Prior knowledge:
This protein is of the alpha/beta class. Helices cover about 35% and strands about 20% of the residues. The chain has eleven helices and 18 strands.
Amino acid sequence: MTKRIAITGGAGFVGSNLAIMIARDRPDCSVIALDNLKRRGSELTLPRLAEAGVEFKHGDVRIATDLEQLGDVDCLLECSAEPSVLAGHGESPAYLIDSNLNGALNCLEHLRRTGGEMIFLSSSRVYSIPALLELPLTPSGQRFDIAADASGEGWSGKGIAEDFSTSGPRSLYGTTKLAAEAFIAEYRAAYGLRATVYRCGVLTGPWQMGKVDQGFVTLWMARHLFGGPLSYIGHGGDGTQVRDVLHVADLYDAIAPSLDGVGDLDGQTFNLGGGRDVSVSLRELTDHCERISGNTIEIASVPETRPNDIAYYITDTSRIETQTGWQPKRSLEETLEDIHRWLIEHRRVLEPILGGGTS
Ligand SMILES: NC(=O)c1ccc[n+]([C@@H]2O[C@H](COP(=O)([O-])OP(=O)(O)OC[C@H]3O[C@@H](n4cnc5c(N)ncnc54)[C@H](O)[C@@H]3O)[C@@H](O)[C@H]2O)c1
């Protein structure tokens, strides 16, 4: 029988790229993407999905009956979300909680009734902000750094591991993800659901509709090409904050083996990210963008740190590397070149979304 793979949030950056790569590599599968098109620019992916042979269903994960459109699926990749770490600040958290937590619960309920496994896109934001703020950072050139031989509970020079603290505030967004993870564990125990959780750091690549609060890598490159404001926000305002970056195609490589069944990855949680070798500070990112785009733009400085912002996050991917042999293949330069090519090729439709008029 044809395998059915469903992707919620399937018109978003991650969901659409995964759906298209799955359809490319798995002509034996029927691939269904469900999305409510809330994210600006997600509508641009509809022709791409259609061309790849992915069936699109307009639906909202907050509404349990919308998921009935998926039918019996063998595997559901839950990639829908309000993914901003600032969501709910200065506004009601209702949409965030409804989408990220109740939406995930509706996906679990759908799987309980119909069978099928879950691959859940969680976030590095489940980790404790106070604990992350206590990491012993030292300025090093244009970035913060941690001594390669330093270590503590759940962290080392390689980055943050899965046993890092999740206690204390972690942002409303991070809490919706951790709560969803807790329900996945309950559905495994109570109903025998099979599921794997991936806690992702910064993901990027073509078709990410970058905003200041989510998707900064594509936004940075887009502003270098199309113009528009950029600021180094927080941590003194000099752009020394550091993240590791994972190309969405590397994320696919990590997840793809589970599409035939999560196997012995059932019940496991993995950090996914580019790791120390694919990390970058904002200042360094500016240098890369200037070199690749050939443009230099003015970047403002806002010294005050915004809520939930952290100076440093690098993923320790030892657990998944040891268990599956996966490693990120794309270098930072390759990833940025890829984004640059995409922006040039689709300039007409992307400039109104990623250019100067937006935030
Ligand atoms: N991009 C990253 O850096 C990153 C990092 C860690 C985790 N994640 C997680 O990966 C997943 C995908 O993120 P992304 O970067 O593709 O974000 P995205 O915003 O590009 O995609 C999310 C999609 O979900 C859709 N959506 C939102 N609310 C919905 C609802 N109620 N019903 C149906 N669809 C809805 C949006 O329209 C959008 O197309 C999310 O779960 C996110 O939390 C992303």
